[in-house]
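Quick one, tokens below. Sequence please?
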């Protein structure tokens, strides 16, 4: 059996794709995969390292939501890419083609659909992206990560599955996290991350928060700055010597960090939220304000309405407001316990398995 998987641009599209590949392999060890991405996206580095065959479509980027001269060039490039995608499909001869998001999915899934190859898209966010909205008219099945996304797609094709979660996230133990990051179990642990590239607004607000935390020494903090922000943050904290605080540029073992966290300060990307809820981690969410269709705010609102998180809009974020929310939550273990239960109730730990079954049902 042969399967083409496509998803690109950010880890939020790539890691769900890799998780689905592993879930299918567990069911069908004979399955052969080809990953279609872009040359400039993170997938060009991540996917080959995962030992998966990779080929690239030369795309200039997604279409803007208004008329521009650049759109004309991109539209012409997209048409050429559909032909190239059709050649890939004809050569590989897949039994099914799967897309997990990003504009690279457009040509390959459209070509597969026109060639009568079964297709599935997986939409992670509460608000569907433009590419997936267009593809929904052509594909055979749609798996959505949130109930709110159901209204974006044809009901007959669409299933609420949740978002795929890496097996490592579910398997990680708190004790392993404490040992790896040299923290203790007697004080609450706060995990801060603005995504793989970091978030300047969160980093700036955390400077004063960490200085206060060093003085109080009543909680422990693991702050992931992003590689580009690390030097700036550590320079501002150069006089800080506190055993309860760790500042790192990037986290290669996020599953263990989540396993030990009592509270998270995060952006509101769909994959991160899926992992937090699978672990039942309460959160203070600060949605990225420039996400397409403002989807991160809608993602966050789902958790807030369930009682699993608090939200601070990026435009409102200050060190004082963040400190106020932290103080309130850390001072109330009962509130954190209730939020953790609400978070866990939203989790879909078996999502990858369910989506894999949907994919295999098309073969």
């Amino acid at each position: 059996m042969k399967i083409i998987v496509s998803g690109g641009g950010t880890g939020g599209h790539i890691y769900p794709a890799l998780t689905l590949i592993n879930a299918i392999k567990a069911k069908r060890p004979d399955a052969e995969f080809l990953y279609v991405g872009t040359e400039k996206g993170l997938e060009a580095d991540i996917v080959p390292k995962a030992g998966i065959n990779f080929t690239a479509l030369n795309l200039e980027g997604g279409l803007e939501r208004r008329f521009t001269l650049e759109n004309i060039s991109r539209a012409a490039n997209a048409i050429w890419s559909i032909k190239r995608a059709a050649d890939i499909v004809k050569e590989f001869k897949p039994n099914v083609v799967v897309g997990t998001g990003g504009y690279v999915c457009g040509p390959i899934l459209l070509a597969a659909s026109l060639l009568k190859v079964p297709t599935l898209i997986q939409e992670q966010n509460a608000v569907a992206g433009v590419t997936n909205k267009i593809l929904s008219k052509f594909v055979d099945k749609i798996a959505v990560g949130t109930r709110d996304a159901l209204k974006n797609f044809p009901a007959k094709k669409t299933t609420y599955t949740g978002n795929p979660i890496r097996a490592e996230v579910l398997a990680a133990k708190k004790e392993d996290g404490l040992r790896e990051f040299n923290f203790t179990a007697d004080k609450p642990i706060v995990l801060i991350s603005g995504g793989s590239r970091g978030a300047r607004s969160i980093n700036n607000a955390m400077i004063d928060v960490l200085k206060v935390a060093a003085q109080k020494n009543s909680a422990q903090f693991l702050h992931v700055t992003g590689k580009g922000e690390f030097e700036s943050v550590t320079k501002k904290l150069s006089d800080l010597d506190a055993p309860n605080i760790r500042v790192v540029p990037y986290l290669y073992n996020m599953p263990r960090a989540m396993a030990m966290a009592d509270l998270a300060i995060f952006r509101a990307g769909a994959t991160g939220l899926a992992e937090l809820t699978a672990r039942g981690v309460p959160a203070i969410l600060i949605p990225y304000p420039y996400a397409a269709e403002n989807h991160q705010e809608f993602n966050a609102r789902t958790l807030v309405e369930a009682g699993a998180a608090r939200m601070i809009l990026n435009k409102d974020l200050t060190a004082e407001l963040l400190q106020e929310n932290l103080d309130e939550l850390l001072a109330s273990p009962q509130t954190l316990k209730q939020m953790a239960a609400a978070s866990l109730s939203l989790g879909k730990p078996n999502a990858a398995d369910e989506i894999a079954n949907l994919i295999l049902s098309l073969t």
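Residues 69-92 form the longest helix (24 residues). The first strand starts at residue 2 and ends at 6.
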